[in-house]
Design a protein that fits this description.
Rossmann fold; two-stranded antiparallel ribbon
Length: 228
């Protein structure tokens, strides 16, 4: 299903009979789009989850049909120190994504407290940035990094980071820096380092599914506890 809400288009996958009581939102990377990620959804095999995949606001300058959350400087290779925070395209994406996520429960009927925000590469950076401002159940950062200073999240939530030892695009040192920054803010991080490059292999899919199922089960157990 294709939707256009708060200026971001998105694709959805999952139960349409109202049985989904949790939501997974996944943000694509630079030059990809929602269709790239939605193709992975059947392999997650997570029950009772609605999955939503938004397109970034900006067209990619080189990849036909590709989108981006913000541009990179010419010849940028992630090893150069650079602060993206002042870029107008990032500021626009940040605002639009936050509004879109805040409005998402109106469509899914699932609160943000039962929503997990995931992102790959540049999408992972967006998930770290905007995710901290929302009362999410958890975050999954795949081959990601911090594009600006880490912020204390508005509510405690676990974060799983998955990164390739041989990532030729986003050096694993960037992920280590993000993990250190999140830990310093008191955010619990589960670190998963895989012998891979810049990709989402079946092993990573299994880790994502396990993380989502564990959070859902923990949430159900909390709700089942008697009051008083």
């Amino acid at each position: 299903m294709l939707s256009n809400d708060s200026s971001l288009q998105s694709l959805t996958y999952g139960p349409t009979d109202g049985t989904a009581d949790w939501c997974l939102v996944a943000l694509h990377g630079w030059g990809a789009n929602a269709a790239d990620l939605v193709g992975l959804a059947p392999y997650l095999e997570i029950a009772n989850f609605s999955m939503v995949f938004p397109d970034a606001p900006w067209p990619h300058p080189q990849a036909p049909g590709g989108r981006m959350w913000y541009s990179f400087p010419n010849n940028y290779d992630f090893r150069q120190p650079y602060d993206f925070a002042d870029q107008a395209d990032l500021q626009t994406s940040r605002e639009q994504l936050k509004i879109w996520l805040c409005n998402l429960p109106k469509t899914t009927k699932i609160p943000l407290e039962r929503t997990i925000l995931a992102g790959f590469s540049q999408g992972g950076a967006m998930a770290l940035d905007v995710g901290s401002q929302l009362p999410l159940a958890g975050q999954v950062i795949l081959s990601g990094y911090l594009h600006s200073e880490a912020q204390t999240p508005v509510n405690p939530r676990p974060v799983m980071m998955v990164h390739g030892t041989f990532d030729p695009v986003v050096p694993i040192a960037k992920a280590h820096q993000a993990k250190t920054a999140l830990t310093a803010l008191g955010q619990p991080v589960t670190w998963q380092e895989l012998a891979m490059g810049h990709e989402i292999p079946p092993q990573a899919m299994g880790l994502i599914a396990g993380f989502c199922e564990d959070l859902r089960q923990a949430g159900e157990n909390t709700l089942a506890q008697p009051l008083g």
